[in-house]
Amino acid sequence: MSEMNVRSDAVDVEQIMRQIRARIREKRGADYTEAEIQQLATVKLEKFLDPRGLRSDLVAQYRKQRVVPPAPPNYEFGETTLYETHRGPLSALRRLFRPLLKLFFNPDKITSVLHLQSEINRQAEERLRRLEEREPLSYELLHNLTLEITRLGIEVHNLKMRVESLTSRMDFDERRARSLETVVEYRQPRQNQGQGGGQRQGGQNQPQRQPAPVVPIAAAQGTGAAGATSTSSGEASSAQAATPGSGQQGQDGGQTGNGERRRRRRRRRRRPGSTLANAQGQTWAPNAAGDNGDDTGGSDAGSDADADAGADELDDTPDPSDATDQ
Amino acid sequence: MKLAVVVQRYAADLSGGAELHARYIAERLSRHAQVEVLTTCARDYVTWKNELPAGEETIRGITVRRFPVSHPRDPKRFGKLSHWVFDHPHSIADELQWLDSEGPASPALVTHLASRANDFDFVLFFSFRYYHAWHGVRAVPAKAVLVPTAERDPAIGLSIFGPIFRGVRGVMFNSPEERALITHVSDRRGPGIVVGVGSEIPERTQPWRFKKKFNIRRPFALYVGRIDENKGFPELFSHFERYATMYPHGLDLVLIGSNVMSVPKHARIRHLGFLPDEDKYDALAACDALIMPSKYESLSMVALEAWAMGKPVLANGGCDVLRGQCIRSNAGLYYDSFEEFAEALYQLEATGPLGQILGANGREFFRRHYAWPVIERKYLDMFERLSREPAPALEPLPGFFARRRRDLPPSRGIVDAAPTGAARA
Predict the structure, then answer these.
(1) pLDDT tens by residue, B63-85
(2) Are B42 and B52 in contact (CB under 8 A)?
């Protein structure tokens, strides 16, 4: 499928329209005009798919028009049929001369054959009647099948349209994604940007560290204490102790991290240089040792004082000093 | 310089069409000349019923003289005569009857114009097809400048208009397509220029205010104007419903304007009714694109306004004028089928690849061709040129018997034979 390719510096509407038509032609497979398509669609729907085109009274109409002819008279042929007569003396005379007749040919054979033929006629007639009785059922079956096929045809048509719609949506999404990709600008991480830079650097300098488990926000205050207790694990962990919530931030990513970062900035603005980290002369590092999975054992040993410090960083409770600063 | 503007209706609150065009031009030219407007007492363009008082009044600094309409339009008679002259061999007398039935028949206006012809340097007639223009031009041919506002409809093929097009001093066309059509049907050779009209675009708009006021949360394509079958709405509704199925996350359709036909109930079609200009411009600023579904336009002012505000336009490709404007401006797309409609509308979405670029082209196109200084300059240059050139003689009407000879071909055939497609400027 060809892609729309438009340069912003030289837009030509006619060229765009040609591209649009080419896309449509590709999708369609043939270059029909709208009128031709409408005509084709109408023919199809009218002749084959439109259930309104079917006569719902087809069977009734058939029954109405069907004339069942009376059965043809059948001839019962017995042994004496050949010699029967309503005249008594003639009957006696025939009976008298019957042996003489049998001298010239075999009338019993004729009688037997004619009897058999009569029987065949009767059976054929019966079979024909049965077929005629079954004929309306066949019509009904045919009628129902036609209806079902029509319905299925419409369903297929609808499904085709849905597939087309989904294809268009997919195209749409793909093209949109592609156009968005072209405008996204990837920035290289900048070095030495103060605390923020330090944070990023700290993260980059410790690639071998395992990511700490995600901690629910509700438990954040408690885990702040956990971070604070990791002071025993060296320098990095002491940085963690300085900003106990930082481990939490690094783990939670965008959700809680952004809010915390904002709050922290706010506090820094209010009390420039007065964060605990600065007071201790340490750099703030998000993936400090306290975040480290190796250090989880220390979390239970957190002191209450550290826990309070962590809580202070995590929740937005105003510090009494804030009021005085303001 | 003294100018008269003659138009079928005139009021400060009439929106759209030739009337607004005439008002804008009158107001703008009044900065360079003394302008007087001659019009009728009608407000309704269907009946031409006398609704406004006859006499003189001042509207936005322009003197306006109103003259009564002698008889309102009888739609039945007008329809019958239209069918006759458009589709059957007929006579000039039939065409004159048609003109009289179309209205707005105001002999008083024509008489006044003839009596005061010497007071004006030029008389600008708006809308060639109406009574006032035909009789007015015949009353003062030496001073007549025509703004035809012609569409591709059978009326332009009537033989009575040929001498008018050929006889006026100058013609101010709205588009090259209109010029091509008029040249074809009348064989006019005299002075003429494609001008169009500017618009009163507000300096600041508040798209968010519009969205908030009407609770519009999704991106939308806009239509501004009358919602009428003649404006191509059945096709637009059908296309849009299919588009909405194909693109569930595509644009909604918002309609502004009074409706003559019913608007289908659809979750993604909103009809807001007639809105004041402030809302209209805010809507234009808020929309992703403007849709013009009409096949019959001599100049779409709202399309120009959309371009002026940096919005792309999706036009019906069946309308030569709009198609031509889209091509010349490189600021809009057009459609001849549903597939083209859907694909083009996708391209014009504000977040899509083309919307912004075409919008910017539109702004530039409007600035270059339809900014008021450009329009005013074209009019003034035309008047200057005409004042130097001698006036041509107007062809007289044929005699009594010749007027009644039914040997004129149906006008529809004449218009159908005219070349179609976008004209190159």
Answers:
(1) 999 999 999 999 999 999 999 99
(2) yes
Give the residue carrying structure tokens 């003034």.
B380
Spell out the residues 6+ positions from residue A307 whose beta carbon is closer than 8 angstroms to its own: A221, A222, A224, A225, A228
Look at residue B355 in the predicted model and tell me its pLDDT: 81
Residue B241 CA to residue B232 CA, distance in Å, equals: 15
CA distance linking residue B313 with residue B270, whole number of Å: 19
| Residues belonging to chain A with any Cβ–Cβ distance to chain B shorter than 8 Å | 4, 6, 8, 11-14, 16-17, 20-21, 23-24, 27-28, 33-34, 37, 161, 164-165, 168-169, 172, 175-176, 179
* pTM of the entire predicted model: 0.60
Q: Do the chains contact at A179 and B352, CB–CB below 8 Å?
A: yes
Contact: A13, B245; criterion CB under 8 Å: no
Q: Is A247 helix (H, G, I), strand (E, B) or coil?
A: helix
Contact A312, A243 (CB under 8 A): no
- Tens digit of each residue's pLDDT (9 = 90 or more) over B126-158: 999 999 999 999 999 999 999 999 988 899 999
Are A12 and B330 an interchain contact pair (Cβ–Cβ within 8 Å)? yes
The closest of B420, B422, B337, B334 to B152, measured between CA atoms, is B420
- Distance, in Å, from the CA atom of B315 to the CA atom of B306, rounded to the nearest integer, reads 12
Per residue in A145-198, pLDDT (tens digit) is 887 888 888 888 888 888 888 888 888 888 888 778 777 755 555 555 444 444
| Token couple for A19 | 């591209």
Dmax (CA) for chain B in angstroms is 66
Selected for mutation to probe chain B from A17, A27, A174 (highest B CB count within 10 Å) is: A17
Are A169 and B249 in contact (CB < 8 Å)?
A: yes
How far CA B115 is from CA of B111, B120, B139, in Å, comes to 6, 11, 9
Chain A residue with minimal CA distance to B325? A13
Instruction: Tell me how far apart the alpha carbons of residues A61 and A68 are, in angstroms, rounded to a whole number.
Output: 15
Residue % of chain B over a pLDDT of 90: 72
Residue B37 CB neighbours (<10 A)? 24
**Interface with B, mutate which of A6, A7, A13 (most B CBs under 10 A):** A13
Q: For tokens 């007549």, what's the residue?
A: B144
- A122-130: long-range contacts (C-beta < 8 A, 24 or more apart)? A122/A74, A125/A71, A125/A72, A125/A74, A129/A71
Rounded distance between C-alpha atoms, residue B126 and residue B17, angstroms = 10
How far lies A307's CA from each of A260, A262, A278, A319, in Å? Answer: 17, 21, 19, 16
Q: Cα distance from A13 to chain B (closest Cα, Å)?
A: 5
